[in-house]
Amino acid sequence: MLNAMLRRTRADGVALKSMGSLPGRIHTPKAFFTFRQPLSRSLHTPCRRPALQWRALEPVSMPIRFKSETAAKAESWKQSRTITAIRKVFTFCGFFIITTGAVVVAFFIYDASTYRKGVSAMDIPVSELALNPRLGGPKNLPIADVLVGDHDSEAMLLQKDKPRL
């Protein structure tokens, strides 16, 4: 009965919104809005924007919906733009901190896995003369008779006895 009465009276958008028949924001094309402008305007009348007045849609195009408790709960969860922006900033900062921490932990795990427990002196053969070369010359500088890398590979072992400048 209320539905038929509203269709006959063609209620405006504010009345339909207060009944809960329309959502909080009305998304309709501009054709549904009419502009109310004064018929005559003098030069001293301040220029102002025309007021929007919503025309009721045809009854078949928009069914009337009564308020329910689910709609009230949905409206209560709406938040302001500031709170939403703050929440997004903290979310992005949290993701950045967690990602950075995960990268640091992964680096330390990788670094710890590269070390061996049982390192012995037999792993790297180095000549004693390469570590402590003899000194000579006018400035008493070290003379490289034997190099540290002489025992690294077969090619270096073949060049070990080669004279160096």
From TrEMBL:
The keyword Transmembrane helix applies. The chain crosses the membrane at residues 89-110. Keywords: Membrane, Transmembrane, Transmembrane helix. This is Pc24g03060 protein.
